[in-house]
Every structure is written in structure tokens, then in C-alpha cells.
Amino acid sequence: VNQVANLTLVSSACDMVSTAYASTKDSHPYIRSVCDAAEKGVKSVTEATASCVQPVLTTLEPHVAAASEYASKGLDKLGETLPLLQKPVEQIISDTKELVSSRVADAKDAVRS
Fold first, then answer.
1. Which residues form a coiled coil (predicted)?
2. How far apart are CA 59 and CA 93, in angstroms?
């Protein structure tokens, strides 16, 4: 999970969502009260679940470690195959806009000629 969260694409997307969420909460008092209630509910459920799940996680720890190592190797290969994962969302959007603009310009030139 940490390795996925540290991917530039995932990290920048989370930052964007977090900023939008905070901005929305700050701008709209009614939404803020709903979000605050939802956050408290999620926190309570997380705390209750953590205490119940801990004994199971302890039992499964060797299996989880093996799965984690396997997933880590897969993510390393995926990162090599898809360099897009190492780019921030803003750059991907900018590159996509440039590509679309270029293709549209090429299409216009083709129609003109």
C-alpha cells in the first residue's frame, strides 16, 4: 500500500483530491457539517475494526509478508513498463492537452490541403 501511495501519479492525485475536499469544506458550511460527521463515523468504525482484526492479522502475518513482497515486485515491473505512473497528474493532463491539440492541428492541416 505504501509503495502504491508513493507513486507520483497516485500521490499527486491524492493531493489534488485532498485539496479539493478541504476547499469544499471551507467554502460550504452545510457540507462541512456532513463531512465532519462522516469523518467521525469512519474514524469510529476504523478504530472498532482495528481491534477485532488485529488477532487475525497476527496469524496471517507471514502470508501477508509474502503477498506484500510479491506485490512489490509486480509494482516495480509495472513502474518500469508504465513510466506514466512516475508523472504527476498535472503533467499528464498537460501532456494530453498538447497531444490532442497537436492532433487537431494536424487534422485541420489535412482538411485544408
1. none
2. 44
In this structure, the number of other CB atoms found within 10 A of the CB of residue 56 comes to 9
**45 grid coordinates:** 468504525
Residue-wise pLDDT tens for the chain (113 aa)? 888 888 899 999 999 999 999 999 999 999 999 999 999 999 999 988 888 888 888 889 999 889 999 999 998 898 889 988 889 999 999 999 999 999 999 999 999 98
CA distance readout (Å), 3 to 11, 20, 29, 79, 105: 10, 24, 36, 11, 39
- In angstroms, the CA 96 to CA 109 distance is 20
The CA angle 78-80-82, to the nearest 5 degrees, is 65
